[in-house]
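Lecture 7, part 2: worked example. A protein chain together with iron/sulfur cluster.
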Amino acid sequence: MADKRIEREKQTVTAMISLYCQGVHGADGLCRECAELEEYALKRLMKCPFEAAKPACSKCTVHCYQPAMREKIKQVMRYSGPRMVYRHPLMALAHIIDGRRSS
Ligand code: SF4
Ligand SMILES: [Zn+2]
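Predicted complex, written out as structure tokens:
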């Protein structure tokens, strides 16, 4: 269960960073900064101590991100969150359900 949840979160964060980079940085693929952010976010997810009981990162009390990376991912979420509903509706729905389950 935890593996599937983490796997879904990895796909979602990858899609959100990609939408952000294309829309805001005009990149075809990922620019270096966004590629670094993606790598960082995926590593954090792999090491998340909560596993199956993982909250949504935005609601996490620990928040394991460094402040600079946290600021970057917040910008990505703000931009890509609403756009995910149109671009990746099933992924967006699963993300909402996962978030509710953990709150
Ligand atoms: S922010 Fe919290 S929920 Fe998200 S990966 Fe880090 S520890 Fe896990
Ligand atoms: Zn970028």
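The chain has a mean pLDDT of 91. The two ends are 17 Å apart (CA to CA). Keep this in mind for problem set question 3.
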